[in-house]
């Protein structure tokens, strides 16, 4: 695990991708190509875009047309991992992802416009950790306390009191995902990645 990243390292997200932070789902899938991930999800091909910002318009167009029956995802290779980015989506945390989990690590984090958020760490089909970044002291999964040190160092305030620091909890989710996967997301990567898009039908 990468043990140096903190929420401060993802401060650029609020400066450059405020629209994404308001409602997003970001998923990292180990040892699976983008093309295979789209096949596993049964996605309909829907073109390509350059950069994360390029996913915004087609994502909201898909929402306007299909609402939550079909959601647009963008996938791109980052080393041995596939990054899946969704504006206003939640495919990464739904049951449609379950066939992808066995045999690999999958990390997904999500936030919607109502500030409801989730972070999930799967290992070989086992949900080891799940929590809401806004409420990091309330955790479940098979190993809910395994990443306490990494969570605190990433920027989560694990104190139980009412004076907990809620700032940067979303950025801390990005930092924790990096600590688990070793995949560092940078402004340059967000600008340059070539995403293959697909429409995923949700049951």
Report on the biggest sheet.
9 strands, antiparallel
Q: What fraction of the residues are assigned to beta strands by DSSP?
A: 25-35%
The unreliable regions are: none
H/E element sequence = HHEHEHEEEEEEHHHE
Tell how many strands the DSSP assignment holds: 9
Query: What fraction, in percent, of the residue positions are helical?
Result: 25-40%
The tally of helices reads 7
Main sheet: which strands, in order across?
A: 2-9-3-4-1-5-6-7-8
Summed over residues and divided by their number, the pLDDT gives a mean of 95
Distance between the termini: 35 Å
Overall outline: globular
Assembly level: single chain
Radius of gyration: 16 Å
Structural class: alpha+beta
Could you characterize the architecture of this molecule?
By secondary structure, this protein is α+β, with helices and mostly antiparallel strands. 27% of the residues lie in helices and 32% in strands. It has seven helices and nine strands, in the order H-H-E-H-E-H-E-E-E-E-E-E-H-H-H-E. Strands 2-9-3-4-1-5-6-7-8 form a nine-stranded antiparallel beta sheet, sandwiched between helices. A hairpin with a 2-residue loop joins strand 6 and strand 7. It is globular, with a radius of gyration of 16 Å. The N and C termini lie far apart (35 Å).
Short description:
By secondary structure, the protein is of the alpha+beta class. The chain has helices spanning 12-16, 18-22, 34-40, 56-66, 148-154, 169-181, 187-192, and strands at 24-30, 44-50, 70-78, 81-87, 105-111, 117-123, 126-132, 135-140, 194-201.
